Amino acid sequence: MNENDLSGWLSWRGASSASEPATTESASRALALESDAQRSTPFELGTLWEKLTAGEWRVRETFSERARLYAVVEEPLCRKARRRRRRGLAMMERVLLGERAKVVAIDSSVTESTVAVAIKGQLRSMGLECKVRATPLILVMAARAARSSRCRAVQARIAHVPEGAAIQWVVSVRYPRLGAFDVLSGAERDVLSQLLDGKTYVEIAEYRKASKRTVANQLGAAFRKLGVSGYGEVLDHVMTQALGGRSAENRATA
């Protein structure tokens, strides 16, 4: 599977306002890319997650380009103290590390909707307005790098971005290598990529001009070939292959 095949689900999921002018957004990303290319230094990806969950950084935007994933983060000059919701954070990390929300809910003696609300609140505190399934891939990788013993040495890059009234950095890491998708047909790979990109079955069907049943059948076939039973397991499968194998070839490097 080449890098172009990944573009559908490795597309950026920004935290910036949708009303922000495109020219401003483009200029901001250009500055981030320039800083990454010219001033970056080695950085352990797990540190990104540690700082986000501690409230030291917030996500300004995430995007992908040049075969890398990027996160622009900031530390406001006037930081407001906030109480960490440890229970919600623990729930979110368990889901991002591959557990089903239903299992997390049962263990926590709450409903699945309570888990979803708690996770959404955690993401919002990091600067993201999205559901857990649409969490930017670089943050999924960072969470696993920080919390999984198999992934602690994931290397990334960091550079200071001199812009605005906030202290900003850009963190980048290579696309994960996803050879597992090679066993899928083109249609199966496409619908699965869109599912991982956060789209619903209805949205995928509309995009492909197909029925919801056809999409469900194609996803079912993809799950069977990969030996998984749903979104959470396929994400875990992808991340395990990309970050957690025993061989160094399965690790993401800067």
Could you explain how this protein is built, in words?
The chain is an alpha+beta fold and 254 residues long. It has three domains: 9-80 and 138-174, no CATH class; 86-125; 179-250, Arc Repressor Mutant, subunit A (Orthogonal Bundle). It is built from ten helices and five strands, in the order αβαββααααββαααα. A five-stranded antiparallel beta sheet has the order 1-4-5-3-2, with helices on both faces. A hairpin with a 2-residue loop joins strand 2 (58-65) and strand 3. The longest helix is centred in the first third of the chain and has 18 residues, at 22-39. The protein starts with 21 loop residues before the first helix and ends in a 10-residue tail after the last helix.
Features of the shown structure:
single chain; 254 residues; alpha+beta; Arc Repressor Mutant, subunit A; 3 domains; five-stranded antiparallel sheet; 10 helices; 5 strands; 47% helix; disordered N terminus; disordered C terminus
